[in-house]
Structure formats: structure tokens, C-alpha cells
Amino acid sequence: MKDSYYITTPIYYANDVLHIGHTYTTVAADIITRWKKNSVNNVFFLTGSDEHGSKICEAAKEKNKEPLAYCNEIVDSFKNTWQQLNIEYTSFIRTTDTVHILTVEKFIQALYDNGDIYKSNYEGLYCVPCEKFLSPTELVNDLCPDHNTKPVKQCEENYFFRLSKYRDQLIELITNKNHLQHFDILPEQRRNEVLGKLKLGLDDISISRTNLPWAIPLPFDKSQTIYVWIDALLNYISAIGYADDSEKTQFKKFWPADVHLLAKDILWFHSVIWPAMLLALKLPLPAKVFSHGFFTVEGQKMSKTIGNVLHAEDLVKIYGVDATRFLLLTAFPFGSDGDISLALFKEKYNAHLANNIGNFVSRVTNMAQKYFNGKVTIPENWPDPEITEILKILEPADTHISNVRVDSFIEIMISLSSWGNLYIDKNAPWQLAKTDMKALEKVLYNALIIIKYIAVLSSAVMPESAVKIWKTIDEKQDIQECARNLAKLSPLTGSNVNKPEILFPKIL
Ligand code: MSP
User: Fold this and answer.
1) CATH says 340-484 is which class?
2) What is the pLDDT of residues 262-271, one digit of tens each?
3) Which of 136, 324, 399, 491 is the most buried (most CB within 10 A)?
4) In terms of Cα–Cα distance, which of 199, 200, 220, 198 is closest to 208?
């Protein structure tokens, strides 16, 4: 079995600071990475910045800066945001890194040598914010439907990639689940959309520009530069040493990627253009592309003009880092589109974190202190069937992560806590304290076990809270070891339940 796991986010445009759309994808990738690290020795989580092209050029010009100087500032802000959100990426690739530029040159030259690139005339309507040509049928009132801007007419002699040549092979690899090289596009609805479009036909694409200096020159014709999307897609292999000829490259260890995570706005590039480029050089395709939902804010697309752009930092100020990570990923199902609002975040925060998980940890540990001075011992014949039964809920945790269903994974944590609160209500420890201390000790022990497993799942989603809970219940077991062995229930290993810190204070 492959003892490595490779997950990527899109590399975000360095034209502006990040907003919560970008945070959404990156936090999801971080949760998956943290959980995978429990059982896989080599996990590589890649993110980065997309720095070439007209969009960046224009943004830099507006600020009176050179593109690279401008990108350096934006990249610092990206890294800062990721640090604030506790994102533990393995590597941050910039398309201006030398290693990336060398990879792009090597790859494009190989495509050219292969006969997959040719020269032809091109006329089309180019949308700068999308960094792509739009067909007249895609326009709404002559405007780009995503950006409400007028695309610019471009007419030039460009180099083309023979994309159409790979159409049939792609359809076969996407549809045939038994194929060794099966390429999965998830969720299924998105796969069907891509297949539907592919079946209508596929044109070759222009991969160079004549008048755009802020880009990588074509290695075989320096008068033209490489189309920013072709440049950007190659980050997934440049970051792991594709251009490095030595034997022991990361490329051998990590390619093909296990999952490219992104949203529907860029699915076509990842599910058609990128795999076709790989097929052209006979490289294996990534195992899957997962397109999560796209969200609107209070019913509207986030936009600077409307003034409704939310930044993760705004949420962190109100809720803290852990809760922000949790709230983003529970706002709506992971594969579907949805709407978010500050009111919804507040409601979910209070319902799931303050009143459910936070309250459960606090009431149980307080009672352990009050009735047993923190020393709750293991009951006879433990685990009892009730606990074994409820903890079966942990069984699909690994599968949810492998299927990129971060929301379902988090749902387990919420359900465990809801069950725990009901268990306490039902058993009324305050009554037992008057009549049966042994029964009371058993109830509290079981509740502490539930807390232990909530912390184990939290270690991927809310890492700081997981550590706090672990300390409160005085756990000695290694949390990763516990996560690796979810199927084998482990008892409490500490001997002194501490006074809890308030994990998630209620927000009014
Ligand atoms: N630079 C390209 C990607 C190149 S990858 C080889 C790009 N960058 S981007 O900055 O525009 O980022 C797009 C990605 O940001 C989406 O695919 C998604 O991952 C995330 N999101 C941006 N806005 C979003 C929402 N409103 N909702 C959900 N995700 C969003 O495209």
C-alpha cells in the first residue's frame, strides 16, 4: 500500500488578500491532512500563490508597484492568514519560484517535442478576472456572468495545445471505475456536468500570449509567454520536484495526487485541461478532484463593489481560531452550494459549540471534580454495551476523510456530544450522588470517555481545543495513537480530571 498521501488546494491569485472562500478550501485541506497524518507516514499538503498574468499585473499597477514586489507583500499576507488559522501546510509554492519556472519550461518543451503544441490564429473574448476566454454563449448581456465585466477582444497568433486529442481517453478514464487509472470527479453531480460538456465536444486551447510580459516565456519561442492557467496547473508537480532528475524525488513518493480540492469555478481546468496535459506526457492522473460548494454571503456573491467580502480574520476576532474552522466547515454540506451570514455563524456557534460540546465537557468535568475530586476510576465490566454501541459512530470517520466529506466527519463529533448531554440528563448524576456513588462513577466515567473521543476528532478540526480537553481529562495516551485505533476502545489513562477551561463562551 502507498504510504503517502498528497492533497492540494488551488494556488490563490496574488492580486488581493484572501477572503473566507479561500479559507474554506484551505481549512478543509488542513483537517484532512491532520487526520491522515494519524495513519499515513508521509502526508504532503500543498498550497501556494498564482502570481503571473494580467490580473496580477493590473493589481500591481494600481498600487504603483512592480508585480513581483506586489506579490511578495500579498504572499506575506497569505502566509500570515494561514498561520493565524493554524494551517499546517507542507509546502507553499509560488509560481515565481525558480523551481516552478524550470518545471513549466521543461513540461511545455516536452509537450512541444511530443507534437502536442502547434501555432494558429486565435480570436476571442478574454475575461481578465477569470483569466480565460469566454464563448459568446457564456456571456449575459455581453458581460462575463461571474464578474459582470466586459471581456476584451483578442486576436493574435498563438500556440495551441491539442486538448481535443485527449477527449475520448478522458471520458473513458472518468467513466470507467474499473480502469486502473480511473479519474474521479466528485461530487457525482459535478462529474456529470463535466462529462456532459465533454460529450458535446472539445476544442484545442490557446496556451500562449503575445503581449503579456508578466508571465513565463515559451521555451521554444521567447516572443510569447505561457498562458497563466497552464503555468498555474503545473504547480502541483513543480512543488514536489518533477523537474528534479535525481532518483529520490518527492515526485516519486507523492505523485499522483490523492486529491485536488477546489470549487466549481475552476473545475473545468482541473478535470479536463490538467488531466489532458498529464496524459500527453503519459503521467498518471490524480486519483480525484473534489469540487466543494461555492457560497454566497447573505444571498449575494462576495464582491468588493457590494462590500460584503468576509475575511477569516473577522471571524477569528469574534469566535477564535478553532471555532472559525469549525463554523466554516459546518455552515452547509461540503459538496453543495450554500449561503453564509454572520447571524448563521452565531447561531451555530452557540448551538454546537457553546451549548453542546463546550457545555458537555464543562458539566462532566465539573461533576468529576465535585463528586470525586477528579479521581474517577474505571467501572467493573467496562465497557458496557451502551458505550460500545454509541462509539460505533466512530467507524466511518476514516472513510469520511478519504471521501473528502469533512462535514460528515464533524457531524460525528456533534452527535457524540449531543448523545453525551442526553446521557447525563437521563442519568441525572445529581440524583445518583444522593443514592448510588458507584452508579454515579460509572456514568461520569462513560461521559469522560465520550469526551475523550470528541477530543480525538477535534484534533483535526479544532486542534487547540483538543489539547485543552486532553489536559482537562488528564489523558496520557498519545492522541494520534488513539485516532489510529478508533476501532479499539481505549479506557481513560489519566488519574486526575482537572477543572475545565471554558472552551467556547456563549456569545450573545
Ligand atoms: N489561481 C486560480 C487557481 C489556480 S490552481 C492551479 C484561482 N484562484 S482564486 O484565488 O480565484 O481561488 C479560487 C478558489 O478559491 C476556488 O476554487 C475555491 O477553492 C476558493 N473560493 C473562492 N471563493 C469561494 C466561495 N465563494 N465559496 C467557496 N470557495 C471559494 O482560481
Assistant:
1) mainly alpha
2) 999 999 999 9
3) 324
4) 220
